[in-house]
Amino acid sequence: xxKKPFLVVGLLSAALIFVLASCxxxxxxxxxxxxxxxxxxxxAGDNFSGNYAIAAVEDCTISEEFYYSKGKxxxxxxxxxxxxxxxxxxxxxxxxxxxxxxxxxxEPVENYLHSWQxxxxxYNNSEVTVRRLLSHTAGLTDxxxxxxxxxxxxxxxLEESLNYAKDSLPFRGKAxxxxxxxxxxxYSGGGYSLLQLMIEDVTGRSFNDYMRDEIFLPLxxxxxxxxxxxxNESLSECYTSFGNARGYKYFTALAAASLFTTVNDLVKxxxxxxxxxxxxxxxxxxxxxxxxxxxxxDYGFGLGVQLFDEExxxxxxxxxxxxxxxxxxxxxxxxxxxxxxxxxxGTGSFVQKLVNTWLGWQLAN
Length: 365
Prior knowledge:
single chain, alpha+beta, Beta-lactamase, eight-stranded antiparallel β-sheet, two-stranded antiparallel sheet, 16 strands, globular, disordered N terminus
């Protein structure tokens, strides 16, 4: 029996992507870019209580883009916090270390850690490999994600957060092995914090510096960062679901939840995934990320990406930071198309409906 493509129904802060079809977030049937543009406007409504930046890419070129804000104007160079979308880009940073022969996907992550070790468990911690952390199959049971902090002064060190994350959902959790590694998909923000620490330990650089120098700058993503200056003139405003302005949250868990980027930068990232980049990462490395590694729903996860068809040719990642940051990047490798969505404020279902509309269009054709 042919599997049905799943729809994106919910994203829980730096979090689990539910894959159950729902009429509430089903999306709209469209068959071309003009109809998709109409769908965006209709789904957003006339009184959107926040801001958004959206771009549709066709054949590696922006075909439609949409910007709205009830306050400070936004455009393709406006910085939005992207929540769990950062896991996708972090995974590319990890694969760069693999291709440079600094780490191996199937080695225990503890082989690369100097400043922290997993607590003892009844399972074999040496089975917690880099590959399994990337695919959420390492057996970690830390919880679903991170709420973040309201100010810089509350930030923990990364080691403190791994021991006892004061901002984790749904409880104050720690990175520990609670199920047998390799046997079950369990979405883990703590796993990506562990990868963040691994990057720092093997490179001797801060995570943000490594990602800037080795990923963002080579790809021309010059505005992107995991630590933003709140005085940056390009920083968009953040809104609650009721349309009230508030500041973005601060995160110790940078890799899991704190990416800031722009539409224009993410278009470059999408095109890199579609066409590669000479003398950077081999296309076979990118393809390995899109191979099924941990089953969930009808399809599942690769290495840092959710897969939306049986072949892994449609892939991406979403994100959700409370109170109302919701984001997505989804890429169709066969058609060289992509969708990028950044939003704060507004209804929770807007992004889900929008992504499902785009996904249905891509799969129908």
